[in-house]
Structure formats: C-alpha cells, structure tokens
Amino acid sequence: MTELTSSSASAATVAAARLLLTQMGLSPADLVIPDAQMPTFGELIPKVRARLSEGTLRTYNTHFDHLLAQWADRRLDEPSKTDLEEIASRIQADARVNRASRGGTSAVEHFISATRCLYRFAEDTGWIRPSDNPARKLAMPIRQPSHRQPIPSNQLTEICTVAATTGNDPELDSLILRLHIETACRRGGALALRPHDLDPDQCLIYLREKDGTDRWQPVSPTLMRHLLAHAEDRHGPRTGQLLRYRNGRPITGRRFDHIWNRVGQTLPWVTSQGISTHWLRHTTLTWVERTFSYAVAQKYAGHHSKSNGTTATYVKSDLTEVAAALAVLTGETHPLVPAYQPGTTGPSAR
C-alpha cells in the first residue's frame, strides 16, 4: 500500500511538472543544456570583458588572463571547485610580498570575484545552473587588517619634493599628489575628473568614484587654479579626462605606478613599505578624524552613513564642515566658509 501511494505521488508530481512546463512554453529538453552550447573560457571571457566597467575590468583582467592562459579551450562546466581552489592557491603563493601585502589574500579575493563574475554571466545566459556553478562554492579568504597607515608629515614632504623635482613631468605628478592629499579621493576619482567637473567659484570638484559615491568635494583656491591651468595648457575637452600628458594624451593608472616607482628609487622606504596612492587617502582621512570628528571624516571620504549604525543618521556632516576641515588642512580660506580663519595646518602638499 505504501509503495502504491509513493508511486502515485511520484506520477502526480511528474504530471504537474509537465503541465507547468507546457504552460511556460517549455519542454523537458529545454532544461538540458546541450554540450555543443557550453562555451569555453576563451569564448566566454571576451563577452564578459565587454560588459564590465573600466575599474572592474582593471581589477579582474589579470585573473581573466590567467584563466585564458591555462583554460582557454576548456569548457565552463569542466573545472571543479578543487580546480579553482588550486589556481587560487598558486595565485596566493605568487603574490607580491612587501610590508603592505596581506599574505596574498587580496589577490585570491579578486580571483574569486572575477571567477564568480564569469559564472554569474553564464548563469544569466542559461549556460550553467546555479547548482552546477563551482564558483559559488568557493570561500572568500578572511580579509586581514590593512597595513596602510598615515604617512608622517616629514615623509610626506619628502615624497612631494621628489615628485616635484624628478621625472619627465613633475608638474603633472605634483598636481596628482596634491589632488589626492587635499581630497582623499581614490585613483578612479582622479582619472574620471573632467574640466566640466570644476566649479571655480565655489572651489568644488565633482568626484565620481566606486559604489556610486559621486559627490562635490571642496578643494583649495590654489589647487583649483592649477587644475584649471592644467586643463587649458593640455587642451583637455570640457567633457573629456582632465589629467593629461604634455602631448594631450589622457593618463592612465600606469602614471600612478610610475610616480611611486620613481619616488621609491630615491626614497627606498617607499618601496619597502609598499606605499601607494591609497596611503594618501589614509593620511588625510586620519588627520580629519583626529582633528575634527568621525562624521566629518566620513563625509570627507564620501562614505555612506547607512552602514555605520543608527547614530550616524543623526550626526551627519555637511559640505561646509568638509570645507572648514580643508581650510585648516591647507591653510587657505575656502569660499564656502569665508568667515572661517584657519588656525593650524595639516599634512598639506605645499
């Protein structure tokens, strides 16, 4: 009797499933992906690359290249979770080691994110089922605390001096460093800056950064003059990239690497500690938090308050407070707070 009930229930389930598929205009065969349709990594990666933003592609591209070098002709459904973990282990072992590194965990995290991006596209296209997706089963490494720290004022002065007195375009490099020191912006924000984003009357620039943190950011009158002069001298279109070489060609992220490689040749501790542009963000934001408040530092950084607890909803900072902090940082009065007289100076690039 039990067997009859079970068999009857199974038949009823199958019948219901067939009815549902019919109503959806599908057949059981539609749920099976033919082997001939399953793409290889060499076929899939160019499709995914074409859909990514410039910043995301810059992060994932190295790992896409790694997968193409090893598995260009391999189908997407062939690698297992273990295969992906073996590649992740090799990436971690080969990661660059310096004082700023965190045991290669960041490289592994980016590899897993890049792999998940590929398989997510394959899922959305119907090439692979979520249950068959090996990237879903990969565990993200535990993120280690960052080794970045604020750069002491005397060392920051040394860095700016070397950048301003060496290299093939010290004027450009000094402008880049001052932009990052004053605004604590990310590299992507500097690269996305356009002449059209400059408001000289209020000494504001419009930054477009990751996670939709687009915002107006105060800058000093001195920096604004140099940004305007740079745009005019290097013939940047109003809606084109602002930071350019002398020949008018827009810079890329390679210019930042060039700056730190060159500075590190003169100041070996820059190389040994792995100091990069992001250290400038740490330096400025730490100073703002210590000198003013966490709320002002949060606004200065362009961080959203919703992820920092309920209290942050009530203690928000505003643009004028950021401008006041900048006035103290640079020692220059800002148009948004003309009555505010800077009394001390911070880690400026002057």
From TrEMBL:
UniProt KW DNA-binding keyword: yes
InterPro entries assigned to the protein according to its UniProt record, in alphabetical order: DNA_brk_join_enz (IPR011010), Integrase-like_cat_sf (IPR013762), Integrase_catalytic (IPR002104), Integrase_recombinase_N (IPR010998), Tyrosine_recombinase_XerCD (IPR050090)
UniProt-listed CDD domains: DNA_BRE_C
Keywords of this entry: DNA recombination, DNA-binding
Protein name listed in UniProt: Integrase
A UniProt-annotated Pfam family: Phage_integrase
Family: Belongs to the 'phage' integrase family.
GO biological process, one term: DNA recombination
Recorded GO MF terms: DNA binding
Tyr recombinase domain span: 146-327
